[in-house]
Amino acid sequence: MIPMAAEISQQQSIVIVGLGQTGLSCARFLAERGYVIAMMDSREQPPALAEIQREYPEILIKTGGFDASWLKQADMLVLSPGVDPRHADIEAAKLSGVEIVGDVELFARYANAPIIAITGSNGKSTVTTLLADMASEAGKGCKVGGNLGTPTLDLITEPAPDFYIVELSSFQLETVTSLNAFASVVLNVSPDHMDRYDSEQDYQNAKATIFNGDGVMVINSDDVFVSQLAQADRNQITFGTDADFNVISHDGKQWLAEKGQPLIAIDELKIIGKHNVANALAVLALGSAMALPMLAMLTALKQYLGLPHRCRLVGENNGVRWFNDSKATNVGACVAAIQGLADTGNIILIAGGEGKNQDFSALTATLQQHVRAVILLGQDAELISESVPKDLEHYSVRSLQHAVSKANEIAISGDNVLLSPACASFDMFNSYAQRGDVFEALVREQCL
User: Which of the listed residues 46, 72, 97 is the one where a domain comes to its end?
Assistant: First the structure.
């Protein structure tokens, strides 16, 4: 069991590294509790600079680079998730004895209600929001955030909620030591953020941190890496093919089930694809750990429409369906989306963007098996094209507008046109959300 971490001493010298939304959240949390802090950012004009200066003019701030002397003299560094702890100055501070934490570690130390923690390469936000809907349907008061949107420290309230439900990225988990969640899950693990990690193992290890403690472990029995994390002496609930929550045949249909008992027919769900079936099973397992009533869980599951930019149906015209999966910023997410739609028609895939040093060869077999045409765009289109089977129809285009036009030109009745980029958006857009919004607008304008 992880012991409760001590709250920070009022005499400690604290430097917050990173002046984005997380840094602002940390500054507010610590300043409101009387701590004296300083802040630092490598950028000249970080996004939250003006807001912090306006709210807390007394905070000493340095921008445009890291000051090694500041870092080494601190008692504690609070790193924003976007700050790489491998940075030489951060490493040097750590070696000199400075404690390195992030906002989630502070959240874990001050949280006043049970924490439900969710991570994975893909599906985190879907599982987080769906679980929150289930808890709400069951009459539970929950605070929801983390990587999903609201910074974790902003969730801490008085009176305490029944649960905190938090989505956590690998970046956030790098600096966590005392989370000890009431229940936690690693949904799946596929290579991602290889520009941040020295190896795939380092990325996996960061994800595995979420299980530290003695709470309920929710295990994906179908994921090779995740299934190896199971601990015999811990309370566990499994989901997958051969698991506590799985899929069975019943009355001529496929059903979600618990230990052989049918719960809900898959065709009653509004979310589409095999990956969303796995997400639904994971949420049922987490809800079970929270002792949510099954009726409330199934009611929320029937009503859930899915997240924007996550394999959402934009519309259908002339037998062609258009799907926005702009949130698929890695290869694993793209593969999951393709496999999820594979049984519903031929797929025309629109992909490309900023590749984050990923290995795209994992796409090849899935493209060969399930995709009839590929349209590539963005910074790493040429790199991705090396993993496209030579006999597969494929095109390179200059913009998302051209991609939609080309897809509309070659699509026939029964096709699914899927924007699932397998890449970050920052070479062409401000965010995956902007990319998805532009795609949907183009589809409505040109194709529906």
Answer: 97
